[in-house]
TrEMBL record:
It comes from Limnospira platensis NIES-46. InterPro entries: AcsF, Ferritin-like_SF, Rr_diiron-bd_dom. Catalyzes the formation of the isocyclic ring in chlorophyll biosynthesis. Mediates the cyclase reaction, which results in the formation of divinylprotochlorophyllide (Pchlide) characteristic of all chlorophylls from magnesium-protoporphyrin IX 13-monomethyl ester (MgPMME). Keywords: Chlorophyll biosynthesis, Iron, Metal-binding, NADP, Oxidoreductase, Photosynthesis. It is an enzyme of class 1 (oxidoreductase). Its cofactor is Fe cation. Its EC number is 1.14.13.81. It catalyses: Mg-protoporphyrin IX 13-monomethyl ester + 3 NADPH + 3 O2 + 2 H(+) = 3,8-divinyl protochlorophyllide a + 3 NADP(+) + 5 H2O. It holds the Pfam family Rubrerythrin. HAMAP family: AcsF (MF_01840). This is Magnesium-protoporphyrin IX monomethyl ester [oxidative] cyclase. Belongs to the AcsF family.
Length: 358
């Protein structure tokens, strides 16, 4: 625990440039995909909706939104100790996630330009939004005398390969859960301005609409490929990605409950609200959603939170690597068992209405 009376120190590549957080199963990932398969994709089944969303992207509602004002021009030394540490972690994780989206969308735009110009422009304009978000977050880090070398991240991070259909499932959910995360924080701080410790939260209302529009695009892409929603395999994949996105957020946020406490939120209650809203939103396109109200759903996730605490303690110990592996193994098995049981919970069948979360 960081002494609350002292500023935490962060490892730096060079003065003022933070060493990126260690990659783990829960850290934001960088993605690549099968670009040739994406080039061949037929979107005619839902091209009208995709073109309508493209028109929304072209309007660029937030082109003047991400401008720092005079409230940023002050010392932030009063944000100290553990609060400073977890807030810097929040900014870094958010910046890394937004930059990951920028890289993927930018490359998709470049690769699709000749054979699928409509999709290419959609991805180009989404990469514009993600670049703004990442840049705004990185500039916020500079208020704490830090920044991320995004060029270094581009070269040093491992890239996870996902087939296009998995990109659609995962990114649709990531964008929609991002909407609910941002809007819940914004509405809480609107009601409790005394908890707004930093001005970036004032930007979340418009910001989350970028996330929402991006999610609408991937909703439309899923509907353009009926096989991704209408057969038994699609139902299994929907369950998998719903659980993956919800569990990743829950484990991450409860591990960083101090950040949410600093802005007046209970991390567990906040995550439950976000999960319920995202699950409801997913029911507008997915054929099934998770039964998040089942008595064992959060019990099993809470068990994984405790197990992760034990895994972190082992990872931070001075034991040799091979000893750590055998110490961690039963905890990995325990988490795997919890996730398997969560996956096998009977889902809820829904009739998608294809509405838009607002």
């Amino acid at each position: 625990m960081v002494d609350s009376l002292k500023k935490p120190t962060f490892e730096e590549i060079r003065p003022g440039v933070k060493v990126p957080a260690k990659e783990t199963i829960l850290t934001p990932r960088f993605y690549t995909t099968d670009f040739e398969e994406m080039e061949k994709m037929d979107i005619s089944a839902n091209e009208e909706e995709i073109r309508a969303i493209l028109e929304e992207f072209r309007i660029d509602y937030n082109r003047h939104h991400f401008v720092r004002d005079e409230e940023f021009e002050q010392s932030w030394d009063h944000i100290d100790g553990e609060t400073r540490k977890v807030f810097v972690e929040f900014l870094e994780r958010s910046c890394t996630a937004e930059f990951s989206g920028f890289l993927l969308y930018k490359e998709l735009s470049r690769r699709l330009k000749e054979k699928s110009p409509v999709l290419a422009e959609c991805f180009l304009l989404m990469s514009r939004d993600e670049a703004r978000h990442a840049g705004f977050l990185n500039k916020a880090l500079s208020d704490f005398n830090l920044s991320l070398d995004l060029g270094f991240l581009t070269k040093s991070r491992k890239y996870t390969f996902f087939k296009p259909k998995f990109i659609f499932y995962a990114t649709y959910l990531s964008e929609k859960i991002g909407y609910w995360r941002y809007i819940k924080i914004y509405r809480h701080l609107e009601a409790h301005p005394e908890d707004r410790i930093y001005p970036i939260f004032r930007f979340f209302e418009n910001w989350c609409q970028d996330e929402n529009r991006h999610g609408d695009f991937f909703d439309a892409m899923l509907k353009s490929q009926p096989s991704l929603l209408n057969d038994w395999k699609a139902r299994l994949w929907c369950r998998f990605f719903l659980l993956s996105v919800f569990a990743t957020m829950y484990l991450n946020d409860l591990q960083r409950a101090d950040f949410y406490a600093a802005i007046g939120l209970n991390a567990r209650d906040y995550d439950i609200e976000v999960i319920e809203k995202t699950n409801e939103t997913a029911g507008r396109v997915f054929p099934i959603v998770l039964n998040v109200n089942h008595p064992s759903f959060y019990q099993r996730l809470d068990h994984c939170v405790k197990t992760n605490e034990k895994l972190s303690a082992i990872a931070n110990s001075n034991a040799p690597g091979f000893v750590k592996f055998f110490q961690k193994l039963p905890h990995y098995i325990s988490n795997g068992w919890q996730f398997l049981n969560l996956y096998l919970l009977k889902p809820i069948n829904v009739e998608p209405t294809h509405g838009v979360a607002r």
